[in-house]
Amino acid sequence: MKVLIAGGAGYIGAHVVKLLAGEGIEVHVLDNLSTGHRQAVQWGPLVEADLLQPDSLNRVLSSNRFDAVMHFCARSLVGESVTAPYDYYRANVTGTLNLLDAMRRHDVDKLVFSSTAAVFGNPERDLIDETHPCRPINPYGKSKLMVESILEDAARAYQLRSVALRYFNAAGADPSGCIGESHHPETHLIPNMFRSVLGQRSGLKVLGDDYPTRDGTCIRDYVHVNDLADAHLKALHWMAHNEGAGRFNLGNGGGFSVREVLAAAEQVTGRKIAYEVAARRTGDPAVLVASSDKARAELGWQPRYPGIEGILSTAWAWHQNPAY
Ligand SMILES: NC(=O)c1ccc[n+]([C@@H]2O[C@H](COP(=O)([O-])OP(=O)(O)OC[C@H]3O[C@@H](n4cnc5c(N)ncnc54)[C@H](O)[C@@H]3O)[C@@H](O)[C@H]2O)c1
Ligand SMILES: O=c1ccn([C@@H]2O[C@H](COP(=O)(O)OP(=O)(O)O[C@H]3O[C@H](CO)[C@@H](O)[C@H](O)[C@H]3O)[C@@H](O)[C@H]2O)c(=O)[nH]1
């Protein structure tokens, strides 16, 4: 089997590439290296191409016969999407349409798509399952929901088989130390915390402590990046036996507030983490926690890192000695 990984030089994509290659699948990475890293591509060839340049996509898809595509490319900062919506719709919707067009032209009929908890908006119940209404509150989430709708239409019109995996908060790193999270600029809580402990950045901020939550800070469902990677492998198997457009929520089913993550990180590092409370970040929902019962039942997905400490430990190991 041969799979094209669009965005495979990025954080989550690189972990998927490693897992698939370990399963004997031939992986090729397509990436424009806008936020990804050449050094993260270690288990297959890298082709530099851009989803916003259809000619470059056609070149990649005509050079090999791929059985499936996995699509990780996106602009994905919630706050930035609010101030630069055109950039987000162009990158996430137009970019995906270009990829889908090229796949259709070259008869590739299976896609795994990186969707997000941000498609739901502010939750109406404690655990968000796939029946929960989708009312995204920022352009990032809206752009991902638009792609999910496009995939449903593509299933009907062109028999495209697809799986949209709605990751909740990806975190952690591969225990090998070869790959991990490295975003520039870094906006995510966990890397910011560790970089602050290591003295690589100053002024860690807790973005809002007046949310309607148990301690006033936002609650998120952190899920290990290798558990997400495993869901991609299982999505490939699912598409072999199922038609249509599948959608699965991926999280651990437990939420941690920003303050709780800080306390757990102090345990893991054995150090005190200094922070100050700042204003809320635009576009942040108060609580996002997944029910992943459907993924467990239909994909056979079983996270190996159900607790926050295990996730934080692998992230801490990476940040102390990052390979890139
Ligand atoms: N990190 C999370 O917590 C999280 C949560 C939910 C969903 N997601 C989604 O998962 C996906 C991967 O996230 P990540 O954190 O690994 O991001 P990332 O920025 O590390 O990886 C994205 C990769 O895509 C590449 N890319 C971007 N635009 C491209 C284009 N036009 N053409 C070619 N390559 C392009 C980048 O260079 C990068 O290598 C994204 O779609 C994101 O929206 C991430
Ligand atoms: O320096 C920081 C960074 C973040 N936060 C807060 O920590 C929480 C988590 O933030 P972050 O790590 O930036 O993740 P999210 O904004 O929740 O977004 C991630 O998780 C979403 C799904 O839940 C995905 O859609 C996004 O792509 C992914 O970046 C939020 O409440 C932030 O306000 C801080 O307090 N200080």
Question: What characteristics describe this protein?
Answer:
324 residues, alpha/beta, Rossmann fold, UDP-galactose 4-epimerase, domain 1, 2 domains, seven-stranded parallel β-sheet, three-stranded mixed β-sheet, 10 helices, globular, binds uridine-5'-diphosphate-glucose, isomerase, carbohydrate metabolism, NAD, Epimerase_deHydtase, UDP-glucose 4-epimerase
Account of the 3D structure:
The chain is of the alpha/beta class and 324 residues long. It folds into two domains: 2-171 and 223-250, Rossmann fold (3-Layer(aba) Sandwich); 189-220 and 253-320, UDP-galactose 4-epimerase, domain 1, CATH 3.90.25. It is built from ten helices and 14 strands. It has a seven-stranded parallel β-sheet with strand order 3-2-1-4-5-6-11, sandwiched between helices. Strands 12-9-14 form a three-stranded mixed β-sheet. Strand 1, helix 1 (11-22) and strand 2 form a beta-alpha-beta unit. Helix 6 packs across helix 8 (258-269) and helix 8 (258-269) crosses helix 10 (308-320). The longest helix is centred in the first third of the chain and has 21 residues, at 85-105. The model has no long low-confidence stretch (mean pLDDT 97). The structure holds nicotinamide-adenine-dinucleotide and uridine-5'-diphosphate-glucose. Uridine-5'-diphosphate-glucose binds at residues 76, 78, 116-118, 168-169, 187-189, 192, 205-207, 218, 220, 258, 281, 284, 288.
